[in-house]
Design brief:
Order of helices and strands: HH
Radius of gyration: 26 Å
Shape: elongated
Number of strands: 0
Length: 62
């Protein structure tokens, strides 16, 4: 076994790992979870209870 055989085996194993991850990512079982994660940036953040916290008007002394 020389270095080229080891490189070939590593290439085949890497490709098999890639195919496995792609199948896992596109399987129908994970669709709901991935859709929920994809919509996280668009969810509204909760607003603070009071509006006095950080809103100060200009021209007033602290």
């Amino acid at each position: 076994m020389d270095i080229n055989d080891a490189r070939s085996i590593l290439t085949v194993l890497s490709f098999a790992c890639f195919v496995g991850i792609a199948l896992w990512a596109y399987s129908g079982r994970n669709k709901a979870r991935f859709d929920e994660a994809a919509n996280l940036p668009f969810e509204d953040d909760e607003l603070p209870a009071s509006s006095e916290g950080g809103a100060k008007t200009r021209g007033t002394a602290s």
